[in-house]
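seq as requested:
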Amino acid sequence: MLQMATSDAHSDELLRLPEVDALSEPDRHLTTTLVLGTLRWQLVLDARIRELLSRPEMKLSAEVATALRMGAYQLLYLDRVPAHAVLHDSVELVKLGRERGAAGMVNAVLRGIQRSALSVQRSEKQRIAESGQRSGDSSQAALIAAQFAHPALMVERWVRRYGVEAAAAICRWDQEPAALALRAKPGTEFAGIETEPGAFLAGARRVVRGDVGRSEAVRSGEIRMQDEGSQLIAEVAAAARTGSARVLDLCAAPGGKTAILAERLPGAEITAVDVSRSRLAAMRKRMPPAIAERMRFVVSDAAKTELQPEWDVILCDVPCSGTGTMARNPEIRLRVTGEDLARQHARQAAILRAGLKGLKPGGRLVYSTCSLEPEENEQVVAEVLGSVAGFRVVPVSSVLDALAGSGVVTMEGRERLRTATDGDFLQTLPGVHPCDGFFAAVVERI
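struct tokens:
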């Protein structure tokens, strides 16, 4: 938690470190719950803590703020650790750092939170009950933001774009442990893991229970953990071609979508490009040998890559804010700003322009993000296609129909995805759809 507070580290990477993996299963689960839960509820926790400080405007060090947040989260939202243990551990944690003198203050604030825990829970329930009685998008957005610990400006954007009910569903989804989905070949044995069919795809399974991280099938690569929305993007890209083809995956790491392209297009020549040498090397190591042997791995900045029109299929799964993945990466809500969206937009547009230059006539490019923000999605597509000629947008609904016809998308899944098509594009919404939020546009060279 301290590293999260003092750097741009990502929780999903830190929770996969060897030190965490070496913990017992109960301790590993508690660590994951504590880290992600504290991040999910940090805005609410900070407000509660400020109310109990002698000077609410005082600046807390990262060490003290982290100890208070983790302690407050356990007192307000967990019942597995006794309150006296939470107080003791939080105080001792502060004493281990440079702010030993703050131990008394931490003890006093957390005791105040302990006393108010029941009344806080009652007031939260009352706010939920009153949520349907208020009118106006702005007041509804503020209520949703306070209820589910999201930045108010972020929720207001979603209310304007998707409506009140969808915005509330997104925020509610973000506050729960991220759903686990798997990718596996038909007939795969899920030893030690109980699964059920995916929401959309015949090749996806959703985890009901079991320790996926310790599964030998997962460790060996026979089964891959991959959100079903992410799988769907790769299926849309693979649907652009059958048989032999030249396929380019820009921004390829960590490689889950690339693997699906290789599986669906066994005769294809596939090139994976990524700006990070280390991420590309890790991707190559994780790939099944049979797939890795028929791929090229190229370290390059996709925005600066000079392509010739020789590719049948191009996937541009561009870097983005990640606001569609906040159940998995809750720290995103604490970091994303309007300036970030503008900066991402410029890079995304550059990557899309570079990718379009590489398409053959009749070739298709899939532009995708895991963002819910129009600046990173349809506005990028509109800006780039408005400046070049010879391309058309292919309605994603027609691609989904074809995938349903071939059995890749189930008939039930096709019906669920009808609410994910916004005009010509695909946009899954967390909570509205049981997966991360993904955007996709299919562009064809005429």
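The chain has a mean pLDDT of 91.
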